[in-house]
UniProtKB/TrEMBL annotation, chains A, B:
GO terms for cellular component: cytosol. This is Phosphomethylpyrimidine synthase. Catalyzes the synthesis of the hydroxymethylpyrimidine phosphate (HMP-P) moiety of thiamine from aminoimidazole ribotide (AIR) in a radical S-adenosyl-L-methionine (SAM)-dependent reaction. Pathway: Cofactor biosynthesis; thiamine diphosphate biosynthesis.
Length: 536, 536
């Protein structure tokens, strides 16, 4: 049986969720990290778990909104001169309830969480206006996280569908969700998503800014972009992708590529830079951005606008020139106590992955790395959740803190519900494989519990411990639908007469008794080990 | 357009198949490795492509069959004292038509193929009684290959279904197929499979031997096993898994494992050893086996009967004790001019994969490694094609020559047609990603051609170059079903107004002209880059 439990922290309002699997034998229940949130009525939204924590620190006040689209509302914002960010508090030596919350989730001490944040090696993305979120941490010393992208587009999909995808993505293990909506209703879609999300929400504000000037990048101005940032900050967006590293001088470096600039944000900024032969305003206005981000505790996700879109373009000059700039921008954000993570590629063959991780660590001073895949080959459209899960697992094992999922529809179409699930599951696999490879404390307990259940033919326990219990059960039903088969001491692979698991379970007993008696006893028991045995 | 072409070798009966993709622009056609075979009527079987090559060497004669099940038939077998194996010929300095065939397939010289075989670093599995097969090579200097397992079981499935799975598996890229049938009709199933297979067929003869003694391992004898080997040799099985490394002394090493012995063959032999407190007859009779294998040019696939079945059991003493024994057995097989590959795990977390490859190379003197996955976590039943594709890609990039696929049904049930395809595709991805990582000459041409088609919005070319054109096309149709969308200069991800690929294609032109003029021209052209453009 699988159910949600809450573990209380040092105060009663710290309630940390886990999925607890109760086993059919006497082993203790297994607790799994849980991202599914408390569940909500989409009309009402989620309760504001963190509201009290945010306000009791005394650095935030409720004020009239300033954004064009949010005008008339009351929102939270830093008091004059205050920087209510987790990085600020960590640097002060404070353990916030948010830090304690993630410490319980991760099985580490709150002080360790605080120190990792203070050093810039980890972030807790949590805008003061998204008090609904359950704190989670992104950093290489913690469990590897995954992000799921959703969002309406010009071509199709509705707000209700996107909220459903949010709930669906977090049910299967999405740690954060990015709302990449384009087309109409961006504001309303995002409002619905943030109010119903127990995980941090990320956006790419340049998409909405571009909508505001009818898709013409030459219409973009700092003022228009700033207003968009404020609007999203007031709604509660927890981290924002900012392509401030696409410098005018970098653009020509991408000219000879096989696939040019594939990042939407990157190509918009490149167009803007080239049109006026001028420097990217996200770069020139970067300190102003930092001031705004600090007021809401928004984290930077410094975008890789020049990431490679094909194997041929991996690890080229354009890509690394931008990465180096992201390192400089990281340092500046830290001056303002703003949390930062760094986005990474893209399409990279396996043997070039390590260089990405090494340079990112060096140039970005161990700020968390957040990579899209990488896809390890270009030849399998329709299966890029797999081409990229391979790269994601590898880069995760090297220290990447969060993996941005890729769905089977990548390059081809818009992901539906099934694609979202396929992407999330493939990435949970990559993340957990990486946790194992990093020797992350406790990570292997999950594998061991499942394998033990498998070896002992505890089918229900095996299903309940699975990353996707529904699919595991359904697949078993397909070959052996009978209820009795769920307690049988064999599986459909070998059938009842011929089962290696059963044989070796019995061999284990023999071996334990010493070799001499064993053979006699084995012969005396006859062919018994091959007879079908149904567990009582 | 995608069609099959044949490239002629130094003589007209060497016709090497490729899938040739013709593009819609002026680029030359792209040739892809093709495993699908000439196609056949299951009632008749395939033509005997290699019959003349085998007989013209003068070392093989047609004789009455000796197997209990094959009696009355005429089969091919070495003349007295001859060893008609590719290893023998390679050591003599001969380039056989089989070697030339694979040289053309792989884009290398025939002499290189010969030398790799002579050194034991590569094998061409091709029983003289399976003259229908199109030669293929397994070795770390060549393209990484994949194997698909099929076979009837005690629980379900029919002969016709299995032949259909064979055709299906090779259509999608299976390089070899193992027939793992258990239950009734093993002989007839195998006959149908071998006669219809253009790829090498592997088996695990102990499965059939066990059927012959009604599933009682204590009934197994060398004579019964030998008769099974002869029967399968005469049918044309190209390689056989032999668990000769499961020694009596190794069995207790597996006693404390979480999942014991998960290999069926391994557990059978362990039971046999323990029951009589005696040494594995596959080990004690190994030289006799070598003599038989040499007479038909059957390759050994030295089985890893003690491979780990869980993350907890990876790289343990039992596993490596067996691997070391497999190295000794390799040396002995080579004395008899018998080709050898070595089977590998199993369940192994990413950070323990390298040790497997390193020890295999060292102990087995660079004989080809043939691994099952490895699965990099135990927690995702229903998705083990993905948990294992990660491990397969990694170990492939390190030098593993062939990857044994895992389907989504692993641990849960019997793979159906969809599962076979899912397994094959996941493994083709892993194999190609490994080829890229190894810097295999020409491997990246495929990626580059596809990415160029993608960048230039040549949708039909992109589909035809895809590993799975059907799925790529279907996914595109799902969001943008109109025929016009297949020639549109945008995709469903961004919609017509907003397309990074299109923007950067235009940026490329601007950049090529130099920065100064560029900005003027860009402004003069207005928002043109964002208008929908449909290709003429």
């Amino acid at each position: 049986m699988r159910r949600k439990v809450y573990v209380e922290g040092s105060r009663p309002d710290i309630q940390v969720p886990f999925a607890e699997v109760h086993l059919t034998n006497d082993d203790p229940p297994v607790r799994l990290y849980d991202t599914s949130g408390p569940g909500s009525d989409p009309e009402v939204g989620l309760p504001q778990l963190r509201a009290h924590w945010i306000m009791e620190r005394g650095d935030v006040e409720e004020v009239p909104a300033e954004g064009t689209a949010t005008v008339g509302q009351t929102v939270r914002k830093a008091k004059d001169g205050k920087r209510p960010t987790q990085l600020y508090y960590a640097r002060q030596g404070t353990v916030t309830p948010e830090m304690e919350f993630v410490a319980i989730r991760e099985g580490v001490t709150p002080e360790f969480v605080r120190d990792e944040i203070a050093a810039g090696r980890a972030i807790i993305p949590n805008n003061v206006n998204h008090a609904e979120s359950e704190p989670m941490i992104i950093g290489s010393a913690f469990l590897v996280k995954i992000n799921a992208n959703i969002g309406t587009s010009a071509v199709s999909s509705s707000i209700a569908e996107e909220v459903d995808k949010l709930t669906w993505a977090t049910k299967w293990g999405g740690d954060t969700v990015m709302d990449l909506s384009t087309g109409k209703h961006i504001h309303a879609t995002r409002e619905a998503i943030v109010r119903n999300s127990a995980v941090p929400i990320g956006t790419v504000p340049i998409y909405q800014a571009l909508e505001k000037c009818n898709g013409d990048p030459l219409g973009l101005t700092w003022e228009l972009y700033r207003d968009t940032i404020i609007e999203q900050a007031e709604q509660g967006v927890d981290y924002m992708t900012v392509h401030a590293g696409v410098l005018l001088a970098h653009v020509p470096l991408a000219a000879d590529r096989v696939t040019g600039i594939v990042s939407r944000g990157g190509s918009i900024m490149a167009a803007w830079c080239l049109a006026g032969h001028r420097e990217n305003f996200l770069y020139t206005r970067y300190r102003e951005l930092c001031e705004i981000f600090a007021q809401y505790d928004i984290a930077f996700s410094l975008g890789d606008g020049l990431r490679p879109g094909s194997i041929a373009d991996a690890n080229d000059e354009a890509q690394f020139a931008e990465l180096k700039t992201l390192g400089e921008l990281t340092k500046i954000a830290w001056e303002y106590d703003v949390q930062v993570m760094i986005e990474g590629p893209g399409h990279v063959p396996m043997h070039k992955i390590k260089e990405n991780m090494d340079l990112q660590k060096e140039w970005c001073m161990d700020a968390p790395f957040y990579t899209l895949g990488p896809l390890t080959t270009d030849v399998a459209p329709g299966y890029d959740h797999i081409t990229s899960a391979i790269g994601a697992a590898i880069i995760g094992s090297m220290g990447t803190a969060m993996l941005c999922y890729v769905t089977p529809k990548e390059h081809l179409g818009l992901p539906n519900r099934d694609d979202v699930k396929a992407g999330v599951i493939a990435y949970k696999i990559a993340a957990h494989a990486a946790d194992l490879a990093k020797g992350h404390k406790g990570a292997q307990d999950w594998d061991d519990a499942l394998s033990k259940a498998r070896f002992e033919f505890r089918w229900e326990d095996q299903f309940n411990l699975s990353l996707d219990p529904d699919t595991a059960r359904a697949f078993h039903d397909e070959t052996l639908p009978a209820t009795g088969a769920k307690t049988a001491h064999f599986c459909s692979m070998c059938g009842p007469k011929f089962c290696s698991m059963k044989i070796s379970a019995e061999l284990k007993e023999y071996a334990a008794k010493g070799m001499a008696d064993k053979s006699v006893e084995f012969v005396n028991s006859g062919g018994k080990v091959y007879l079908p045995v149904v567990a009582s």
